[in-house]
Amino acid sequence: MAFEGIIARETYHDLKRAQKTRDAIAHGFKSSQLTVETVQELIDLIDGELLQELDNVAEES
After folding, report:
1. pTM higher than 0.90 for the full model?
2. In whole angstroms, what is the distance from residue 41 CA to residue 38 CA?
3. 15: which residues sit within 8 A by CB, 6+ positions away?
4. Cβ atoms within 10 A of the Cβ of 37, count?
5. Domain limits at 43?
């Protein structure tokens, strides 16, 4: 999506970092990266930047 210009490259990198934590948890590995702050940052990213960027793309279509 970042390579096609749908989302910002920074948003893409933030999501990739979050995916590493998600993968560790999903596969039963201990993750020291999972904190209340990390979860809140992900929520803010999705509710804010990501949804706004996707809405912009939808409006342009």
Report:
1. no
2. 5
3. 45, 50
4. 8
5. 9-60
